[in-house]
């Protein structure tokens, strides 16, 4: 944090003085040649008086030091002979382990220099068991930790003692946590901490967000008494820094119509890196990072030190890159959002964002990584990967310039997380359901939770909560005579502790480089003791056959086979990988940016701001077909090859489009358009079929308004959800978080596989026999905002009701080209499995035809039978 | 759930076989995961694992308790459509022997109605070595029909054709970048391993070591269960699991 306050801020806030700042602190600031900033003092004053406060400051605003000031000042004023503390004074919670460690390092300096009698420790999943046990008995004054660790500590009997004297809870990067399941868990933890320490003060630290009040409610206990008003915390907003200097890369080369690689701009990116000291290059997915890193090194004639950083790489490897960055040994790092959050990574002077930023706030936060000094502009370069992304980049750039934000809105707390919390509470001590309900609804995400829902979740934790058959004799929680609930057996507490947390990782496999004997490639005799390169999703490896090549850890690798939890690979001496790994961006296009893009498209005046290639493309579209107005949705129909296409442009992001595609194909089938498949990108959806849809629309046999009617989200959706893999994935996550099924821990024996009931099978049974079960409700709520983005689809259908513009054209239109180019890149969803099985089976038929014919004529004589 | 009607009349293209051969007999694998032996008017199912949900609940996993009902109803649909003279359950019909006494009354009634008017054989499995009389039918260790031995676990002493369960075979293929993993009937023409029929039964890949001694590998076929047909797939096209 020292870097963040190195220079006095400009203007009068640099001279701010406060009665709340003790001499020791004022002197320390002075000895460094610094002045406390106005927002640091404002926060000290409010939180020092015990008011819950949210500090909103751009990156580089001395946010973390500000957050700790009230607590450090309070600790400094303690009487000297207070003996060993039995209780934590300050809890600091961060979403990242690395961030907790980083902050611990940075806080150590001021504490030592001021000679404060303060003990400071971290506690994360990596902390040794012995130290964690000791921390429960002899805690430090300040404990830096993660939401999961707090849940664990709260599930012990010692929690009451441990937190009785808690004064401050500091929630860092609150904007990144709040609207997520981890945020729900943290909110419930905070509510519990308040019952243990009623006088605690909560301090939230956040980047700039769209709705600060909404976020601040998270810090304050809510009252569930039918009062319509939320309670909010105090808000301190730091003065904004200098506007960022953002540019979109104007390429000499032609911008591609589709794709996400940005490979076309490689040399220009390389030139930008050469012209700066340290560039941070953000991409949206791991595989994009791999690909660009690989490509950059192919053109790296100057041998610039360029490194790679993403969440799947081996931890040791990541730490090495981070250290090299801080010490200034690198010129560029290609990274994913793992570097999004506020860790200091040295003197970055350029942020390159490859691909679309997807959201205005995300872009602002990423740009903040460059240049931590508030009084100098951060410099950023946006590199769109295709033509639609040019418009998206332009929209994001304008939004950032206007200081517009589009952080996701808060949503009701997840019921599976609540289930986990309830079990945790019972592990600590017996609870009274009325009291617990009051506690839970004091957490902002659960403020509107009805008593009925709470009771159903409680019943689920206790006995499964099934309506028909009952598991009373196997209950996990038992109600005692005084009405309190207690755990039925200590092993359920053990189960809880192994299961705590809301992060359900896709199963991962280690990627291990095989050492080969004598250089010969002999898979059978391969030595598997080679280096581990990192981890990759099991799902990805499942698609590979031995001999397939793919890019990982910056190299082209050849997949050789599997050995237990390891994917064995060798170096492939090839330049191109066979298997493309692009699985779509992790973040959907924000509604806000989508709207800006729609407006940009509709208003010709704005086209002049776009590069010539892109505005020419739009002019062609206007001449050939139609450019829709901002309120309309355009649908184009045209023939191509033996097929007929329908392309629509909702601009609602890939996830919502995929769901729409599933539902539309069902409806088109009923309308006898004989649909065969569809493909979606962030902006558009293309459906193709055997029948001429232009003709059907002209003759009134296909009504577009009906086709896109809101009732699509009724029966059609229901029927699709019954078999949707996405829904099953949502359900699996909820089943694990809620404790219905156990996590698979690494190294666990897999031979028992046929004995484990997979969550898919449970889903099928539960859906058929008790469709209203609380866990299905939880899975549905997740799917609605996450994987299938139903909420957004619903709003979209409402928005375009009666505003559909149809254009029947003779061939593919310029605007349709990008989505048409996606065809064939991704597998056709839906009933694809059936087609593939048939093809494979027919291969057998071709090979074994001779045998077959003789077999089918064989008569089977009826034989005797006997029970033996 | 799949309709019994669909089970019986898969849209099999003329190029696809609908029967597999064991010894000299032809049998018909059904999409629901059962085997119908027309010449003997016999329906075969394996590994029902009834009451598995309750058994898991006793260990602290409170799975939905509807698996017994789901499994019996699926079996019921098949029986209703085929009306076979004989039904044989190839072992592990109950997840634990004791569970057989714990069926709720409705499930018991359903089971009895299925058994009515036909011969019912329970072959014992490792999960249900001792079944109580209350389950009805005939309890036996093995059953021989037309020279084919039906038992729960494959026998290394088998001299003739046999049909077994126990292993819950699953097959996996990958095509055009997409993986399909399904329950299957695994056979080399002299031995047939049936898929598990129970609602909560997972599976084991046929390329797993446990299957190694069971087949003449050149002749292996996996009949994979689809939504519209059972698809015979050549053993050499299969992929192992992780």
Helix proportion of residues of chain B, in percent? 10-25%
- The low-confidence parts of chain A are 1-16, 518-525, 580-585, 746-755, 826-830, 845-868
CATH hierarchy, class of chain B: Alpha Beta
In angstroms, what separates the terminal alpha carbons of chain B?
29 Å
Query: The CATH topology of chain B, please?
Result: Purple Acid Phosphatase, chain A, domain 2
CATH superfamily of the largest domain in chain A: P-loop containing nucleotide triphosphate hydrolases
Give the CATH architecture of the largest domain in chain A: 3-Layer(aba) Sandwich
Global structural class of chain B: alpha/beta
Can you tell me the CATH topology of the largest domain in chain A?
Answer: Rossmann fold
| Tally of DSSP helical segments of chain B | 4
Summarize this, please?
Chain A is an alpha/beta fold and 868 residues long.
Describe the overall structure.
- The complex is a heterodimer of chains A (868) and B (242).
- Chain A has 3 domains: 2-237, P-loop containing nucleotide triphosphate hydrolases (Rossmann fold, 3-Layer(aba) Sandwich); 245-401, Rossmann fold; 596-745 and 758-832, no CATH class.
- In chain A, 40% of the residues lie in helices and 15% in strands.
- Chain A has 32 helices and 26 strands.
- In chain A, the strands form 5 sheets. In chain A, strands 3-4-2-5-6-1-7 form a 7-stranded parallel sheet. In chain A, strands 8-13-12-9-11-10 form a 6-stranded parallel sheet, with helices on both faces. Chain A has a 5-stranded mixed sheet with strand order 17-16-20-19-18.
- The model of chain A is unreliable at 1-16, 518-525, 580-585, 746-755, 826-830 and 845-868 (pLDDT under 50).
- Chain B has 242 residues and is an alpha/beta fold.
- In chain B, the strands form 2 sheets. In chain B, strands 8, 9, 10, 11, 12, 13, 14, 15 and 16 form a 9-stranded mixed sheet that branches. A 7-stranded mixed sheet of chain B has the order 1-2-3-4-5-6-7, with no helix packed on it.
- In chain B, strand 8 and strand 9 (148-150) form a beta hairpin.
- Strand 26 (865-867) of chain A pairs antiparallel with strand 8 of chain B, so a sheet runs across the interface.
